[in-house]
Write a structure and sequence with these properties.
The chain has 1022 residues and is an alpha+beta fold. It has 38 helices and 34 strands. The chain has an eight-stranded antiparallel β-barrel with strand order 13-14-15-17-18-19-22-23.
């Protein structure tokens, strides 16, 4: 009698039963010699019904075959049901049954030493059920040569006298559809389930036997079911993974991936068979249906995309494993792993491995097993084999005239095998023994010759089940209809911004997803008609759906800001960085930077969104990520290995370049060849990138640097001989200082050893003076006085360096230093067109106020650290510019207040105003001569110090007063006073002349004089 709990429809809802009616089919009879005619009739019936209604008729076939479509996972739940058939006369006292569950050997029997033994009492009316948790099916399958786990039953009848032996059944696979097994003269029905249906039975309150505990629970003892024996090695493998929740989650994840893989490979029959299992698992149904592939596409979306793709043949053989036994006296294993199958030519490619059993194991295997209904057979060891390395071989499949296939492997040994199907319960030869099909469906067997020896083998059970399922033709439409019936969401977005609904607008509607959408409107939407989107948003199909908004953005149609922000929030929840990047093109979301960077740990694609947000911060007001607190947090995260936060530091230079108000004053270098000198050749370090002495971790060991030329000689020394020429500290090697203008974090880490460590001010000053032609002592005084930034203490951190204004000052002076190196020697103002083109840095034919300021300050050698003189010249030029604008407005009625053309400069009188105000021959930076190091100038005498290489040219009404550099200091003083008195109202030049004279006289005792380098206008960074 079959209990109600064994009916397949008992675990289906009424709605599912109406949509997919269960077909009344008889169980497959099993015994010693099960005929395959009934199996063929059943398959023919399924095929005929499939032609009439593919989805509904395939429901029962999938329910019988779908469970073995997935390979075993580590730990699973099994549900085994046994009942007595109605045509068998039941025993008065019932039956006592033992069950052995374990790997299936080569002789078709369960391997005893790796199996679990259970016992229970079979009631004639209620039957017997074992619900097993934490069963290590994956480990058991690894010990089977066929990768199959099976179980068999031993039955005794019970009476008031005692127990009487009845017999044992043939093995049945785990899982298996409903089958009829014979034990003695009794017929028993059996069904083995795993996965979702087994977990659903546990949630209904059925007694559970937990393999990880090793002992039966009190409920199981009351029900008459218990664990009789459990191998110790299985208990050790189960205890670390104890818990059915983990097993359930793992199986659900594997099921979702299997469905996606089947649909991607156009194996729609396999996908439908897998999806049938979700009917018994309503709790995990949405979790499996929401699973996506690497492109974030659901199974329903893949059905829409694959609507027009052809379905290939023989696809189920890819990834299959053929296990064969060779020889009879000393048999050994031959395993062929099929990797690729060409569906057009029949070409195959795979790896071959040979397993040789241990000699002692072979001797034991020659002992005949006791006679059972399986017959006498030999079992060849599988676990203790010595395996060869995999060898890749090609081959081909050819179809014979009788409909079978021949597989030939090009291994140089003449391997040729014939493939044929064996029915459920049919016995075939495997090696020197026999093997009976326990799977419940057809299995694909092979026999032939391998390396000159007879070979017999069987493909793995998953491949066999998929081949049986593939006989029923299904397509994407039937699969999509089943997915919708199970509750799949048609509005789930993928990475390309399309959902199944919006993809149906482009690729076609496979299962009536666009029901209610006019065809004319669909065509307009596919043509990117903006008015069509407005009409769609008013319909129930489009109103309030984010996939419609995402589709509009991908088509270049703007959407409201509120809808865009809601879509961006959804992208964060659904992990859709590509769609979020589309939203960021339309929406300013600077406050989303930190959440985006946090998600980079899980998906590196979010870096593109972070870059877009950082680029938005380069425009407009100062962004939040440039605050000291944010930078401190970024530095802390970088030190913990989260490199994505370094993106913030890399965008700091870009913000400074694009910010016109970041440094309001003009940037002026006091000398082109000033700054720190190389301690070996005494050349300025700023002419090229300085070289530092570094340790094993790649950081500087001291605040001293050498030039590029001298570093070549140091690089040829051994590691233990490299020492700093100033402080004599040892170094492992030498290395160039990283560029400050691209990534300040690498520059700081190179000098301070760690991003979180403070940098000494002495190291900071020497590094800046080695890169910029600025005097170290003057820079020290400016830092103490807070002239260029906030006052700096003895140490400075990286966030403080970036936010207190010092990095801005250094960055703009680096750009000015690079610009001055390209410009060369400036011309005199008398060559007005040449002077205009020289200082027109933008090369746009218009000279800005900042570019003229640069020319004036460079001519008079005014440094940016001289705030008073810098302000004086800027005020004078502002007055001159305002006078020029007033003059032009009175003449022509208009004037550009920011720029001046070359014609206006040369012909309209602007250069004349400069000549009247500053002099027609402005002092050139290259007119200061430098004596060779270590040599005394030939014109020095003992009467006193002289001014070397200095010519002061002062404009006057009577011409240019030149102060010669060949006179002594005493005679030069009178000439200087006379020249300065001739300047008249130009008081500034008196101050400039006196300052230059005093500064130059103070440097007469030094080894080298320094020239003046031009300035940088802040407007050039805009």
């Amino acid at each position: 009698m079959i209990p109600d709990c064994c009916e397949a429809s008992a675990w289906r809802s009424s709605a599912d039963a109406e949509a997919f009616p269960t077909k009344q089919t008889s169980p497959i009879p099993r015994g010693r010699a099960c005929s395959g005619s009934l199996c063929k009739d059943l398959q023919q019936g399924v095929s005929m019904a499939e032609k009439k209604e593919p989805v509904n008729a395939f429901g029962e076939a999938s329910a019988n075959e779908g469970w073995m479509l997935m390979p075993y996972v580590g730990i699973e739940t099994c549900w085994i049901q046994l009942w007595i058939q109605q045509n068998s006369k039941p025993a008065e006292g019932g039956f006592f049954v033992t069950l052995r569950l374990g790997p299936l050997g080569s002789d078709g029997a369960v391997v005893r030493h790796s199996s679990i033994k259970l016992s229970g009492k079979l009631s004639t009316e209620l039957g017997l059920s074992w619900l097993l948790h934490s069963v290590p099916l994956g480990e058991m399958a690894a010990k089977s040569p066929l990768g199959l786990v099976a179980c068999h039953f031993k039955v005794w009848s019970e009476s008031w006298i005692g127990r009487r032996w009845i017999g044992q059944t043939s093995p049945v696979a785990v899982p298996s559809p409903r089958q009829v097994l014979q034990a003695g003269h009794f017929s028993f029905g059996v069904q083995v389930r795993r996965g979702m249906e087994a977990e659903g039975a546990g949630s209904s309150g059925m007694p559970v036997l937990d393999m990880s505990q090793g002992l039966p629970s009190p409920h199981a003892v009351k029900s008459g079911c218990k664990i009789a024996s459990l191998p110790a090695q299985l208990v050790e493998s189960v205890i670390p993974q104890k818990g059915s929740a983990h097993c359930s989650l793992s199986y659900a994840n594997d099921l979702g991936k299997a469905v996606l893989e089947a649909i991607s490979s156009s194996q729609y029959s396999v996908a439908i068979a897998l999806l049938q299992e979700l009917r018994a698992a309503a709790g995990k149904r949405q979790e499996v249906l929401a699973d996506t592939n690497s492109s974030r596409k659901t199974a329903l979306r893949l059905c829409v995309d694959n609507l027009k793709k052809d379905r290939p043949r023989l696809l189920a053989l890819e990834g299959s494993v053929l296990t064969a036994l060779l020889g009879s006296q000393k048999p050994y294993w031959w395993v062929f792993h099929v990797k690729t199958v060409s569906h057009c030519s029949g070409w195959i490619c795979g790896n071959v491995q040979i397993g040789i059993p241990h000699p002692r194991q072979n001797t034991k295997s020659l002992k005949l097993r006791p006679f059972t209904q399986l017959g006498s057979s030999l079992q060849v060891s599988w676990e203790d084999c010595r395996w060869t390395n995999p060898e890749e071989h090609a081959g081909r499949l050819e179809k014979s005239g009788d409909g079978s296939y021949r597989m030939m492997v090009e291994d140089g040994a003449g391997t040729e095998l014939k493939l044929r199907f064996i029915e459920a319960g049919e016995a075939i030869a495997l090696g020197s023994g026999s093997f009976q099909n326990p799977l419940g469906v057809q299995m694909l067997a092979a026999d032939g010759v391998v390396a000159g020896k007879s070979a017999t083998g069987i493909f793995d059970p998953v491949t066999c089940t998929r081949l049986a399922v593939e006989k029923t033709a299904c397509g994407p439409r039937a699969t999509a209809e089943l997915l919708l019936d199970l509750g799949a969401d048609a509005r789930t977005l993928a990475r390309d911004g399309l959902s199944p609904f919006t993809a149906a607008i482009i690729y076609g509607d496979p299962c009536n997803l666009l029901h209610g959408l006019p065809e004319e409107l669909r065509q307009r939407l596919s043509r990117r008609d903006p008015d069509a989107w407005d009409e769609l948003l008013k319909l129930p199909l489009g109103k309030g759906h984010m996939d419609v908004d995402a589709f509009a953005l991908s088509r270049g149609v703007p959407i409201p800001a509120g809808a865009a922000r809601d879509l961006l929030d959804h992208c964060f929840k659904a992990d859709l960085p590509a769609v979020a990047a589309e939203v960021l093109n339309e929406l300013d979301c600077r406050d989303y930077l930190m959440p985006v960077l946090e998600r980079v740990d899980y998906n590196r694609a979010w870096l593109s969104c972070a870059d877009k947000i950082l680029e938005q911060g380069l425009r407009g007001p100062k962004p939040q990520w440039l605050e000291a607190e944010t930078l401190s947090y970024a530095v802390e995260q970088i030190s913990r290995g989260r490199s994505q936060f370094r993106r913030i530091l890399q965008f700091v230079p870009g913000y400074i370049k694009n910010s016109a108000a970041s440094y309001p004053l003009t940037c002026v270098l006091p000398s082109r060849k000033g700054g720190a000198d190389c301690p070996i050749c005494f050349e300025p370090l700023s002419e090229a990138r300085p070289v530092a002495f570094i340790n094993a971790s790649g950081c500087a060991v001291c605040p001293h640097f050498v030039c590029q030329s001298c570093s070549h000689g140091l690089a040829r020394l051994e590691q233990n001989q490299i020492k700093c020429p100033e402080c004599r500290r040892e170094a492992k090697s030498i290395g160039t200082v990283p560029p400050l203008e691209t990534d300040p974090s690498f520059w700081y880490e190179f000098l301070a050893a760690r991003l979180t460590a403070p940098m000494p001010r002495a190291m900071l000053v020497r590094a800046l003076s080695a890169m910029i032609s600025v005097d170290p002592q003057a820079l020290q005084l400016a830092l103490d006085a807070g002239a260029i930034c906030k006052p700096v203490e003895q140490e400075i951190s990286l966030p403080e360096f970036l936010t207190n204004g010092l990095y801005t000052w250094a960055l703009q002076h680096l750009h000015e230093h690079a610009l001055c190196a390209q410009l060369g020697r400036p011309p005199d103002l008398a060559k007005r067109e040449e002077w205009f083109r020289y200082w027109n840095v933008k090369k746009n034919g218009k000279l800005t106020r900042g570019e003229i300021t640069r020319g004036i300050l460079c001519s008079f050698k005014v440094g940016s650290l001289e705030k008073d003189r810098l302000a004086m010249y800027e005020i004078k030029l502002d007055k001159l510019w305002d006078a020029w604008c007033s003059l032009q407005t009175s003449r022509f009625g208009r004037c550009d207040p920011n720029m001046i053309t070359c014609k206006e400069f040369t012909s309209s009188g602007f250069s004349d105003l400069l000549d009247q105000e500053f002099g027609h021959k402005l002092v050139s930076m290259d007119e200061v001569a430098e004596p060779c190091l270590g040599q005394r100038p030939h014109h020095l005498d003992s009467s006193g110090p002289v001014c070397v290489g200095l010519d002061l040219v002062a404009p006057s009404p009577f011409g240019c007063a030149t102060l010669s550099s060949s006179h002594s200091a005493e005679s030069l003083s009178a000439q200087t006073t006379a020249a300065l008195d001739s300047l008249g109202s130009f008081d500034g030049f008196r101050d400039q002349g006196e300052t230059v004279m005093s500064d130059h006289s103070a440097r007469l005792g030094t080894t080298q004089t320094r020239d003046v380098l031009s300035c940088w206008d802040g407007s050039q960074l805009a």
